[in-house]
Amino acid sequence: MTPRKERMTAVSILLIAVSLATFFGLRGCDNLKEYFFDPSEVVAGAVKKDQEFRLGGMVKENSFKRTAGSLDVRFIVTDFAEDVIVRYSGLLPDLFREGQGVVATGRLNDAGEFEAHTIFAKHDENYMPPEVAESLKTQHPAKTSEPRP
Amino acid sequence: MIPELGHFSLFLCLMLALTQIVCGYAGAHTGRSTWMAAVKPAAVGQFVFAVISFACLVYAFLNDDFTVQYVASNSNTALPEMYKVAAVWGGHEGSLLLWILIQSAWSFAVASASRDLPDRFASRVIATLGLVSAGFLLFILFTSNPFARLMPAAFNGRDLNPLLQDFGLAIHPPILYLGYVGFSVAFAFAIAAMLSGDVHAQWARWTRRWTTLAWLFLTIGIALGSWWAYYELGWGGWWFWDAVENASFMPWLVGTALIHSLAVTDKRGLFKSWTLLLSILAFSLSLLGTFLVRSGVLVSVHAFASDPERGRFILIFLGFMVGGALLLYSLTARKFVAQGKMQLVSRETALLVNNVLLVCATFVVLFGTLYPLINDALNMPKVSVGAQWFNTFFVPITLVLMVFLGVGMHTIWRQSNVASLKNRLKWPLLVSAVIAVAFPLLVYQRSGVLIVLGTFTALWVVLSSLTEPWLRYRRGLSLRSMPRTQVGMLVAHVGVALTVLGVTYTSAYSTQRDVALQIDAPVSIGGYEFTLTAFERVNGPNYVADQASISVTRNGKPVTELTPQKRTYLVQTMPMTESAIHPRLQRDIYVALGEPLGEGAYSFRLQIKPLVRFIWLGALVMALGGFLTLTDRRYRAVPESKASREAASAGLAS
Q1: Could you give the CA distance from residue B136 to residue B126 in angstroms, rounded to a whole number?
Q2: What is the pLDDT of residue B548?
Q3: Which residues contact B525 (CB under 8 A, 6 or more apart)?
Q4: pLDDT(A125) > 90
Q5: Beta bridge partners of B578
Q6: Fold of B511-612
Q7: Which CATH superfamily is A34-144 part of?
Q8: 3-class DSSP assignment, residue A107
Q9: Interchain proximity A23–B367, CB inside 8 Å
């Protein structure tokens, strides 16, 4: 082999090795991945105990309650088939509203309620995070013909 | 009338772009100078009509012409004048027009500054730029016409997205695009080189100049975006590993690698085919970024407007450009065999390591960004990778890169002397190691592995950068005599170190708490006391806001008064957090107002963020380094040679 070829081989091997390491690293590091579930999947028991995940759906109308004077809130996330109670303490995003899409990150407590540490309400002009729209579309096509407020 | 003029100008742009392509490629291929002579005027003409078209849209915005659909969707009579201009690129169609304007501006710049390029080569470069322009012109004309009329006309506009009504966001897209689009020049130079079958030192020098310029803008553009997200999104985060951020970061990483590999091609004639590949890759990633942003295939905070139809067009265009370029590369790469050997301890090796690590980092970001798509395609459970994943892979690569960077700066071409390297670097190594261990413990009373490593690598790079000037000074040599390219390099590397320092300390020592505050009931966080003193309603030009007044004290001494707001924009009735920041080089105090909680309490997010300014300061210093490099005599060769040629022709005439 010429020195040039040798170098190229060395560099290629290095690149491939790093890519493979990244790939398997990603597949292996379960705790670095964030799973996404909708309320139906949560109720059906798809979530492992103490697993952190992202829960997405719509904030159910008239379900939002705040303990007066405190940061503690409670609301229901629904996919129009099943409901999950969410508890959260902290600032809510600007776009958080009843009847609109939300993605909460956290885990289930022993009572089966979702304890969120982060709430996202990013959405596009359809007032739905794309993942939520997707999940509603695939699972419950009949019920989501007009989910907009 | 005016909007139609703008629309028509775009057609003319397309015609001129096609002229560039046909005359450029065919002229260069057949060697007909009359055809090639048409190329530069066509590029100039394209720029002129792009300016006219853009001006027409600005005019429509400034005159509240709501018969234009795009104006009606993105503006309002109550919108302040400055944001009416910024609203031109606030939506999809207009930002595409901005892209076209900037693309043609780069073509214009290349056409005007290409007198020192051989005709055939210049023709091919400008033809390739025309090809890129044509793609985007077809895109805008067929899928996203900003001048489309609205019938019947709207009484008033739907207003600009409140998030975009901000100075940082007004200037962020143009500068970011200048960088993004600027990589098309390096791409065009690579295509032209492959078509002509020749990569020489002069080629590398030309390409280096343009790449550095584009890189400089991209650096500032990304920093502006990060800064804007920091104060405008109201979360105090400065980087989210969001798909759109990654889309701009990947070309930056590859562009950085390209600048370094161009140095090797320039000085040593090595890495030729690799440099070509990086040139293709940098621009391909810019296009990929556009696809990700505009198609809405990925979930993103930036998903303002997106449309799968448009995504398909960009995907085809991306496939055509990248596929074509890679095909050309595979056919011609074998011609670019390097002459010369590499020694293990040399600047060539150092830059090779730099390139491998930067490309690995790019792969990490690319993989993480596309992972949800791959997953989706394979029908696996919905999984996304968040900041934690990116950090786990990206941070180690960066730290290793920093360690090599400190050594690499002191290596010389061909062969470095290991003993002299050791001699030069032992003090920087020792000093930065001691400070990295001691400083966090002394100042913050706690430390960690990443903090020590971050501090160490940052100081190591700074001290290593200062070693050369220091040695010169000690020897009594003038610092002015240092080549500008070297000064620029050292400055840019100090910039990298400052950013790493900022990231390390902000990540490690930030304090954040969500609290419920009542009037005159202070809360203490990170050594500062926050007291809510007043709460009132204020009126802005196109919004009303609830405004809290918070007085911040430290050990009883007043620090500042902050007035965070919660704005409601009247047209889109969208609430928006307007955070209040007390910025200092050593720390920011960041207060965001939440909502009324009942019983006279309001929610707030209070944060102390140490050294957060260093993140953007470092980026500016990096850009300054790039700028200094461009002022080097080697790159200013253009006017000199022109002048000398003119002098020569004048001599002939007389």
Answers
A1: 15
A2: 95
A3: B511, B513, B515, B606, B608
A4: no
A5: B565
A6: Tick-borne Encephalitis virus Glycoprotein; domain 1 (2.60.98)
A7: Nucleic acid-binding proteins (2.40.50.140)
A8: strand
A9: yes
Residues of A in contact with B595 (CB under 8 A): 92
Nearest Cβ partner of B597 from A54, A70, A122? A70
User: Which SS3 state, helix, strand or coil, does residue B221 take?
Assistant: helix
**pLDDT at site B290:** 80
- Residue ranges of domains in chain A: 1-30, 34-144
Distance from CA of B425 to the nearest CA of A (A): 27
Whether pTM > 0.80 for this model: the answer is yes
**Complex ipTM, two decimals?**
0.75
Alpha helices in B197-307 (DSSP H): 201-232, 243-268, 272-295
Helical segments of B333-417, H only: 347-377, 387-408
State in words which class domain B1-160 has: mainly alpha
Mutation for B interface: A1, A2, A5, A7, most B CBs within 10 A:
A7
pLDDT category at A130 given cuts 50, 70, 90 is low
Residue type present at position B363: F
What are the pLDDT digits (tens) for B299-327? 544 444 456 667 778 888 989 999 999 99
- Segment (H or E) for B604: strand B601-610
Query: pLDDT exceeding 70 applies to what percent of chain B?
Result: 94
Contact B356 A129 (CB under 8 A): no
**B39 in Cβ contact with B23 (< 8 Å):** yes
What are the residues whose beta carbons fall under 8 Å from the beta carbon of B149, sequence distance 6 or more?
B3, B67, B68, B69
Does the pLDDT of residue A1 top 60, yes or no? no
Residue B421, CA atoms < 13 Å, CB-side half-sphere: 16
Measured in whole angstroms, how far is the alpha carbon of residue B56 from the centre of its chain?
Answer: 27
Contacts of A23 in chain B (CB under 8 A): 367
The predicted model gives B101-121 an average pLDDT of 93
User: DSSP secondary-structure letter at B149?
Assistant: B
With contacts defined as CB-CB under 8 Å, which chain B residues touch A101? none
Q: Is B304's CB within 8 Å of A124's CB?
A: yes
Which residue spans of chain B are classified as CATH 1.20.120?
1-160
pLDDT band at B375 (very low <50, low <70, confident <90, very high): confident
**Lowest mean per-residue pLDDT among A5-19, B22-36, B77-91, B124-138:** A5-19
Across chain B, mean pLDDT equals 89
In chain A, the residue whose alpha carbon lies closest to the alpha carbon of B384 is A34
d(CA B395, CA B401): 10
Cβ within 8 Å of A, B 137-196:
none
Phi/psi-derived region of residue A121, left when phi > 0, alpha when psi is between -120 and 50, beta in every other case? alpha
B385 interfacial to chain A (CB closer than 8 Å):
yes
**Token pair for B337:** 């065999």
Averaged over B229-242, what is the pLDDT? 85
C-alpha to C-alpha distance for B617 and B223, rounded to whole angstroms: 9
Could you give the CA distance from residue B490 to residue B470 in angstroms, rounded to a whole number? 12
Chain A hits for B574, Cβ within 8 Å: 94-95
Q: How far apart are the first and last CA of chain B?
A: 53
Q: Which chain A residues are Cβ-neighbours of B359 within 8 angstroms?
A: 15
Instruction: Say yes or no for a CB contact (<8 Å) between A11 and B306.
Output: no
Tell me the C-alpha distance between A141 and A134, whole Å: 10
Structure tokens at B432: 């930065």
Higher local confidence (pLDDT), B574 or B219: B219
In chain B, CATH 2.60.98 sits at 511-612
pLDDT tens digit sequence for B267-300: 888 888 899 999 999 999 998 888 777 766 665 4
Q: Name chain B contacts of A68, Cβ cutoff 8 Å.
A: 597-599
For residues B264 and B196, the answer to whether their CB atoms sit within 8 Å is no
Residue reference for tokens 């303990």? A67
The Cα–Cα gap between A56 and A77 comes to 7
